[in-house]
User: Fold these one by one.
Assistant:
Number 1:
Amino acid sequence: MSDIPHQVSDFISKSAPFDVLDEDKVSAIATKIKVIYLTPDNQTSLLKEHQASLFLIQTGQFTITDENGNERHLSEGDYFGFIALMEPGKGQIEVKIDSPGVVYCIPKTMFDVALENRRVKKFFTAAKDDVLLNQAVEDSNSMWLYKPLHEQLTKAPIQIAQHASIQLAAQKMSKHGVSSLIVTEDDHLIGIVTDRDLRNRVVAEGMDISLDVSTIMTENPAYVLHNQNMFSAISLMSEKNIHHLPVLHADDRSPVGMVTTSDVIRKQRGNVLFMIGELSKTTNLYELTRIAWQIPQYFAANAKRAGDFDIAGKVLSQATDIMTRKLIAFFIEQHGPAPMGYCWVVYGSQAREDQTMGSDQDNALLLAQSPNEAEAEYFKQMAEYVCKGLGKCGIKLCDGNIMASNPELRLSVDDAVAQAKKWINQPTPEAILAFNIFLDARAVEGDRTLFKNLQQRRKPLFKNAFFLAALARSANSDAVPLSVFNKFVYRKHNGKKDCINLKVNAIALINNLARLYSLSAGITVSNTVERLNILGQINAISTEEANNLRDIWLFLNRLRWRHQLRNNVTDNNISVSDLSSLERHQLKASFKSIHRAQQAVVMKLSGGVA
Amino acid sequence: MGILANICSKLKAFFGQHQGLPEAVADRALKDCRWLAVDFEFSCMDTKTAKFMSAGWIEGTSTGIDLESGYYRLIRAKGDLAQSPIIHGLTPRDIARGFHVKELFEQIMQFSDSHIWVLHNAQLDMVMLKQLSIRLEMPLPTIVCVDTMQLALYQLHKTMSVIPTGAATLGACRERLELAPALAHNALSDAMATLELWLAQMHILDATGKTTLQELKSTGAIKVFARPVP
């Protein structure tokens, strides 16, 4: 039995994906490893000697050229040689030693042992196909909102045949402690009976309780299918204003359960969505600010899982929407109705629904026509009240003054269109930087047809090739923080030397890409994930590319939410040493994909001129 | 031979270090050698009172370090171990369960002929081995060693007249050659770290792959130890 030096087992067990293997397996693999010091002088003989191996770089820098001539610059923690092991006959590479170093050669037999682990296999398959591990969306499925209902139903449905008596129905409800029953004919749903029906239709009216239960049931009720998710159920219940929703099997429509409002509330208590409901109930500015200030603590306490982070930005944006609507309502209560049609429009992160704790407010008022003095004064006061109110609720005032309280952002639709024309005709880099934020827009309150009108009139303008080319060049001006040799480029932040600004150097870059392609394709939604989904569906970019960018976006977004909530901060500077080995790999892979996508957009929209 | 050289020679003989390389290996190219990186942990640094606490070694050739050859054993010790077990993270139970030092001696001597030993600061370890051989009344066969510390000092002297304190430690030498930091105070880990360092040093010294052990002797890093039985 051989002994393994500590630094070897440490290095392997911290190198994703081997970090998922148990100690015994790591030891078994480690025993068979050959450690080489790869130099330009010995590379020919050593790579030949260990050709049937997976190479894991511990130190040094290497340039790998694949059979298609693509170059990859690799350094510590990176692998090469796995494609040839996974697909015999493929994956021929040339290795150039840029800086010699220690490389672990894991023989094929041991690589195969490692591949028996599903997560290891997934890692190398994703690396082979050059995509991010498709984990982001898979993890999201574990979110209760997106989980199929049949996975969440705990009780079989309590049902009763249509000819049973009302009394029997009431007895059955008491016995099982439920507030509703499914009424069936030949085991198929034909109606439901609730506590409320017994109260309103039987007791209040003095109805004979020996009558058939079908006489008091609600016929042909709304229902959901067992393979739909809780989100669909909640949407339907809110839309129809009902508290009980039967769940039927998708194949034979037999009843399999019942979703009730109390189920939803019980689930929401531990969920970030709960906050939305609380905000909606407020009736004055004091209550609103009191609830709003609890949001960060509520998030910190309840957003624990990756899936929560995926919707955290959406929930926070919805919360800001509700605050805005509430504030406008409070203002109207005090100052009377608006003198003309208006629409409260939001920009930037609120429009994209990816707000974080550090996001500031970006908004504007769109007016039906140019206001006279008195009208202008009304909207000035409204804007100041709402912007200040949002500030009181913890949504920072915008440093760049992109707020409706700025008179330049209270324009009529005609003026807003004229302004867009001006941007498009003079797309200087400064101008692009200044108006980039206005390209992600969403209506939050007021007359949405005004906003729709603006969007429709701006849509053809934004397809202008010169404008898109300028925008593409601008989107490429910020780079991912990765050196030529595939190493992270760090910045110092708060005494930590290994920080990366995830917003500026990664998430914003994907937002830029999604926006560009959307403008070019005339898509008016502003959420990045939705934009990417649509872009993939209409083949504006390949589905694979769209899904990959979406997964990367979700992954990066999770990292920054986790960073903000764990460390109780509002910045986006994550420390790489806080990440697991797998996350570091995924981060690198993400950066590489973003870089490639940036190059592609320049080729496509700017004729290759970066 | 000058007086000073004479004294040096006698001192070296006393410590069991011989100047000449055995004929069988003198002209052997580095790339054809089999290496055994060795490290011992002792209870203290005083060679008169120090006891062996653990031993670690690992083999390598020009085609790489063979992790299957990794060997680590604790040595059963008696008497005062000063503070050392704490430094090495050993419990009294670990030490009591260890190998007898004689077993260690016998095991490692299997490599005396076949391998060139690689040590970082060979002097201490080899003097201790020599003393052990006296104590066990067993011969110390001829052992050819490469001392990575001496080699580092040789290289440092080429660029600076005064060597800063700590510049020749295993960690510092590895850092200069951009090798990963390695855990210290474990015999096998240090042996592994030393062997990696030697492979990196060889790359600098022996770009052609033709350098022989004899040619390396001028660096002062090649040492020969033996204690023939009188």
Note: Residues 6-129 of chain A form a domain with the Jelly Rolls fold (CATH 2.60.120.10).
Number 2:
Amino acid sequence: MTTPSNAVNGAFEPPRPAPAAALQPTRPFYWSVRRELFEYRSIYLAPLAISGVILLGFVFVLVRLPRTLQRAMAMEPMAQRHSLTQPFDFAAGLIMAAAFIISIFYALDSLYGERRDRSILFWKSLPVSDLTTVLAKASIPLLVLPVIAFAATFVVETIMLLFSSAVVAGSGFSVAEFWNRLELYRTMWGLAYHLVTVHMLWYAPLYCWLFLISAWSRRTPFLWAVLPPFAVVIFEKIAFHTAYFSNFLIYRFSGGREAMGSANGNVLDPEMHMTPGPFLTDPGLWLGLVFAAVFLFLAARLRRQRSPL
Amino acid sequence: MPCIEARGLRKAFGTTVALDGLDLRVEEGRILGLIGPNGAGKTTALNAILGLIPYDGQLRVLGRDPWVERERLMRDVSFIADVAVLPRWIRVSQAIEYVAGVHPRFDRTKAEAFLARTTIKSSSKVRELSKGMVAQLHLALVMAIDARLLVLDEPTLGLDILYRKQFYDSLLNDYYDRSRTIIVTTHQVEEIQHVITDLMFIDRGRIVFACNMEDFELRYVELTVKPDRLADARALKPIYERQVLGRSILLFDRADRQQLAALGELRTPGIADLFVAVISNQGGASHPANVQGSYEGVTR
């Protein structure tokens, strides 16, 4: 895409700068994010592929749907809803899990990979600061992937809903009643809440730790990210016979309070577990965000200093 | 304002001293060839100039401290580190889009016009291009940036002779306009002899020789001496002597050409010949007095 400023510049005034373009501080950030999408195409291709697989699998759910409806009629409302929403929750969970896994691998590779293939020398030859680059990379797991996960889920579940509605109507049940029981907006709302609280805010220190290791390590960033915490766990176990650190890690990984506490284990059921008050007043959340910021800042410092591998 | 001014630049990696109090001054509009043996500190010096590594001592590039202001400086400076730094996954079109996106002084039409003269397709990925094509692509990107300083560190490393010739031709014909400054390091010194306006030799982290090319041609002369006049020639204090096919070739600095002409054939030496002379005369001493003098002469 030729920007207007560049086009004018190229056509009419040969050498001197285009001050208008220089004044937009968001441009380097925007293009740094675009560059990440150029390089790591799995950020959008993997959710797309997973969505395709889900829809393929849903064909079998559709075949069984009339029988499921029959059986659901006999159930009490709660169980009825559960049996109907199950494939929808499953789809959302699968896409979310894919986004999480991509985030982990992306965060571990990004700052290490550009040093390994020496392309960091090319990136650094352009007027983009290290902090801008690191923030653009951090925005992938913290912003871009949750948004992609939500959008993919929304599209997949809309398609699922339309096909199920057709089957429901075809087998003589009431479509309105089906939509009513399904309450899909609740799933979507629960998903959005879960993505923001758990994937963006609660996991932020986790991703940022991986970015830091990725910027720091000279080889095998995965081992450096995983082994030191593991060593601390072992040390604590042997020296003090306690498990505070491993409990802390499990708590952090499992998503904290917003990912637990649901009676039927369904994190996407908003009524069961949405507790924004306690979540926002949890010191663990804010401490985690402080650590995330420190990790990112250090990662930017390291990127400035580290030479190619 | 000089384009680059360094005073007492120092950089050590562990116990290895890469820059040992390097002094350097490059005026705007010059094309400087920075020549040195492996491990002399060329790349370290360039990395310091480009804000890629921290250093001790004073350094100003276009009036800025490169380590503190790399991002700002890179609007006016471009560099080609060596041929292999373009990411292999990027498409030609993506590279152009990205540089156009982040660089306020990138002229997209210029880059595309340059690429149109090559066989590079805009849909190709860098990994699909040959080494020479990657160099052409990188040069296209860099030449479309309206920079005041261009730094080329071994830009033609590993390229065949055709690409190397093309590379310098494009640089001179399509880019250099006497207001831009270019620094180039290379081991293929003979290729840049007629490209550069200034010459510096770097050894053990210091500039050991500096001279502009007009002075170079006036000052230095090489004499292929007639065998029977060798003693006479040696008496005129050549700075270096070497044997080629049984004949002695003597290198003189500021000698009387008429006097020398009587002793054999004269020609302007190659940069490589002078380089060998300067570096071997250095021997263990890191600080010969005459070198300091010639250095002062060049900075003017």
Note: Chain B has two domains: 4-204, 215-299.
Number 3:
Amino acid sequence: MKRIPWLIPTLYILFLMMPIYWLVNMSFKTTNEILGSFTLWPREFTFDNYVKIFTDPTWYNGYINSITYVVINTILSVVVALPAAYAFSRYRFLGDKHLFFWLLTNRMAPPAVFALPFLQLYSAVGLFDTPVAVALAHTLFNIPLAVWILEGFMSGVPKELDETAYVDGYSFWGFFFKIFVPTIAAGIGVAAFFCFMFSWVELLLAKTLTSVAAKPIAATMTRTASTSGYELGLLAAAGTLTIVPGAFVIYFVRNYIAKGFALGRV
Amino acid sequence: MNKTVNQKAWFFVLPVFLLVAFNALIPLMTVVNFSVQETFGDNVFFWAGVRWFEEVLHSERFHAALVRQLLFTGIILLIEIPLGLAIALSMPRKGPWVSVCLVLMALPLLIPWNVVGAMWNIFALPDIGLLGRSINALGIEYNYTRQIFSAWFTMVLMDVWHWTSLVVLLCYAGLVSIPDAYYQAAKVDGARPWAVFRYIQLPKLKYVLTIAILLRFMDSFMIYTEAVVLTGGGPGNATTFLSIDLQKIALGQFDLGPAGAMSIIYFLIILFLSWLFYTLMMKDEAR
């Protein structure tokens, strides 16, 4: 055991890659090959499934919709969480602890509980079936998370930084944008990463709040599976493509990812 | 850090407060409304008092779903926390492999949950899936759409696949934050690996482990999308967890009263158990 410490992570990563490999493998096969035989790699290699997704608007619009609400949600969550996290990390005010705790309890609310009320609420305000509705709904769990992460990173910045800036003649907002925000840039990146992640992977609310115009890619997949028979190759290709944005985003935050998962508090 | 009292800080938190209140309080009040009223459609509601709460709390269906939920959460916590800790301990601390490990391990966390379900559905199919086919080739009968044990096995394996990395990343972050001086001191004292783990690493990991257990508890207690796509709650009701049952009642049968009451009980159970975990884990801290 001692001589081969790399064995455990290697085995674990192999285990992680197997289902992903199977999905990618299947996405390059023809329907005939998938259903007719059991092959470890595609014998009749085909790009047809991908071509269909990139040429059929019902498919590629799903990606555009998903990306749209994820980006709106990420920007909104981080922008409103920034001043709030600053307040929690620097000041004491009436009800601060209760408010912080209440924010976190929303992270514990099962989306299944809120699905139906959300449907009624967003229908009532006329936002049903728009990316904005999904983006707003996802702030329920992303804002508390962003506040929590940013507060962790900000509390690591000594207060002397603020005081020195005021002595140097900065106004509050001048200090905040020119000095403070660049100082915690890593924290902002990590918070944005988490907002992106949880908005991208969530489906229950995204599916409930959309019908046709703003349908996310993940919902397009489930509906295709049930309506047009079982086109496994197409489904696998669509699934493979949903992994790409995640992989892309992880690559950017790879140096902060460990600290980020500890919510900036280690 | 000593903080200054400043009531104007409320202006900073106001946007957050308004947005979250809009998303949390209005729907929560809707649920509360459902839970104390009876409806026969057409938006006509009658006061029903605590009848739905009594009904849910005495219903065998709810008890069965709750027991399944507790069992599932218990099993995955018992597997994921020690496994995640073991993997984090054996990971390299420096060098080019660190990034590779972290990126590959984080990958499952960024896959949409229904794709996770669909992926495992395909992977575990007894005839054309790699896992299902391999298990059957070993001579063990395996079919997750028909056998209860196979369904549970697949469900647990999927969750371990999906979320162990979260525990690994948290523990890893805790481990790299331990200064080298601690290890050197241990070496001078001639401490064994077990002593290093017990007296240096474990105390430092306490905080991240608390977060890991809390997050895994909450999220596994809310599991919905992956489970629905993988088994649809079946075979029979064998994998119908609380969220799946709730959705069947709320959107399937449109029984708003019982669904509302169940939502509130469900939410309160999560809040209570999270509080309990947190208090127990942080008990020594206060002393």
Note: The first strand of chain B starts at residue 4 and ends at 5.
